[in-house]
């Protein structure tokens, strides 16, 4: 009952604040992972381009 009273308290509770902060932190981490995945995809694309270009070069 005490826990329910804490959660139902106007203005938020420690649990609400914790969940809000955790959600914010997870969203930031998820955004960071999406950004990292995009950078990795660009890097992979450039590697493939370099591989194709190196095959097209005519040996002297």
Description:
The chain is mostly helical. The protein has one domain. The chain has helices at 2-8, 14-56. The N and C termini lie far apart (83 Å). The mean pLDDT is 87.
User: N-to-C SSE series?
Assistant: HH
Strand count, sense and barrel status of the largest sheet are: none
Query: How many β-strands, per DSSP?
Result: 0
* Global morphology: rod-shaped
Radius of gyration: 25 Å
Query: What structural class is derived from the secondary structure elements?
Result: mainly alpha
The percent of residues in helical segments reads: over 70%
Q: How many separate helices?
A: 2
Strand content: under 5%
How many distinct folded domains? 1
Which segments are poorly predicted (pLDDT under 50) over 5 or more consecutive residues?
none
Give the mean pLDDT: 87
Protein name: LOW QUALITY PROTEIN: kinesin-like protein KIN-13A
Subcellular location: Cytoplasm, Cytoskeleton
InterPro entries: Kinesin-like_fam
Main location: cytoplasm
């Amino acid at each position: 009952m005490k826990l329910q009273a804490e959660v139902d308290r106007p203005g938020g509770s420690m649990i609400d604040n914790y969940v809000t902060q955790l959600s914010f932190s997870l969203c930031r981490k998820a955004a960071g992972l999406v950004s990292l995945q995009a950078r990795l995809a660009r890097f992979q694309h450039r590697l493939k381009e370099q591989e194709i270009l190196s095959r097209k070069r005519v040996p002297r």
